[in-house]
Request: fold
Amino acid sequence: MELETFTIETALEAAAELRRVLAARTHRRKVLGQEVLVPGQLGEALQLPRIINRLQSKQQRFRDQGLDDFQELWPTLSASTREKVLNAIGWYDPKNLDWDDKRSNRRPKIDPD
Reply:
C-alpha cells in the first residue's frame, strides 16, 4: 500500500481501527499477588489519541499535521498489524482481486494464442 493513498478521512478511519487493534492485545500483570489481564497500551505510546484528535480537528493545518504523523507511523507497524487494520476498514487492492470478485473491475486476461 502506498502512503500517498491515505487521505485525511482514510487515515482517521485507519488510526481509529489501529487503536482498537492495539487495545485488543492484552498482557498479564500481577496486581496484589493476582494475575490480571491488562489491555494493551501501545496505542497511547504511539500517540494515537493525539493523531486522531488532529485528524478530527476543524483547522486544516492540524488535520494535515495529523495526516503527516499517521503517514510517518504507518510504515513502522508490522505487516500483520497493517493487514489487520486494512481488512477491518474494508481496504483492498483491486490488482490482487480475482476476476469473479464483485469489487474487481479488471478485464479478463487475453490468451496469447
User: Anything to note?
Assistant: Helices lie at 8-24, 42-45, 48-55, 60-73, 79-88. The beta strands are 26-31, 34-39. The mean pLDDT is 82. The chain is about 45% helix and 10% strand.
